[in-house]
Amino acid sequence: MTELTKHTLGPAARKILGVLLVIAVAGGAWGLAKPASAASIAVLVNDEPITDYEIAQRTRLVQATSGGQAGRAQAVDELIEEKLKMQAARRLGVAVSDSELTQAFNQIASQVNLSPSQFSQALGQIGVDAETLRNRLRADLAWRDIVRQQLRQEINVRDRDVEALLTERGEAATGTSVELTMRQIQFVIPANSSQDFVRRRQQEANQFRSQFTGCDTARDLAANYRDAVVRSEVRRTSNDLPPQMRETLVNLSEGEVSPPQVTDEAVELIAVCERREVQDMEAARSEIQDSMVNEQGERLARRLMIDLKQAAIIEHR
Question: Where in the chain is the domain with CATH 3.10.50.40?
């Protein structure tokens, strides 16, 4: 899988992971043993149960991701909405494949330079079963597809509205994007590699990064490392990159290298060979259209959830 074409989960996922790992390092192990009341039902959502164990697990997760600012009430609300999302997905025939779920989980792990198994262990150190996070991801991915389906029917971004905003901006109507010439460097991880091996590959990638002086000598530098591959140069504008990658790369100067990210196949780096700013009206138009679509999608998601809750039978025990 090529890193330059891989989509990520964005800032929310990074926030989740950053806090999870800080707590995992500092807080020790809480253990994952199910309490005696694990099977007891706390809430029914259209006759579908939410157990005390699910609530305890989700409470730990939301406490970690909120820095301790949220607790059981938010966990219950999340689980209720999760049940409603999955029930809606089943009614509409929306399914999240195992491969899609695995990819989403692995992408989150890679953002903190951990393999999927290492990330699962980090979750376990704060008392969260990895399945708890997978359940949240599954519901979010299904909900994303539901909203997208509905949005295709209701989306209403008119050209004249976009042009009106462009005119309102005046001189700011000329958008600015960054054109990047990049090279990807991969430190290959063979299948079934140990965690120690993955850590050594990360150390090698960081050493490569500190020694990097430019794309012209990247292959010569990589020759000093076993199974290090330097890909051909690729040119992209910032608007063409996935949001997570764009945020990282546009802040790099020429001759700098992104922090290493771990995938199932390799520890990956991206070097910025050249960068230049490009001004064009299309960038501004695309920015406005994306903003309007996102706003409509957020309003639609809120409205759909309100409708689901109003129609649901929710019983707290």
Answer: 175-281
260 burial type by CB count under 10 A (0-12 exposed, 13-18 middle, 19+ buried): buried
C-alpha span between 85 and 13 (Å, rounded): 19
Please, where in the chain does CATH 1.10.4030.10 lie? 10-154
Alpha carbon distances (Å) from 204 to 4, 39, 198, 303: 21, 46, 10, 49
End-to-end CA distance of the chain: 47
Q: What is the dihedral of CA 139, 144, 149, 152, to 10 degrees?
A: 170
Rounded CA-CA distance 75/80 in Å is: 9
Residue 276 β-bridge partners: 179
Segment 14-39 shows an average pLDDT of: 46
Say what the pLDDT of residue 176 is: 66
Q: Where are the alpha helices (DSSP H) in 155-265?
A: 159-169, 195-211, 218-222, 243-249
- Assigned token pair, 56: 């305890």
Cα–Cα distances (Å) from 9 to 87, 180, 215, 243, in that order, read: 23, 22, 28, 9
- What topology does CATH give the domain 10-154? Triger factor/SurA peptide-binding fold (1.10.4030)
Q: What is the pLDDT of residues 134-186, one digit of tens each?
A: 999 999 999 999 998 888 777 666 667 666 776 666 544 455 678 889 999 99
Model confidence at 39, pLDDT cuts 50, 70, 90, reads low
In the predicted model, what is the mean pLDDT of residues 252-260? Answer: 92
Architecture, CATH, for domain 175-281: Roll (3.10)
Contact (Cβ atoms closer than 8 angstroms) between residue 20 and residue 65: yes
Nearest CA to 68 out of 34, 23, 32 is that of 23
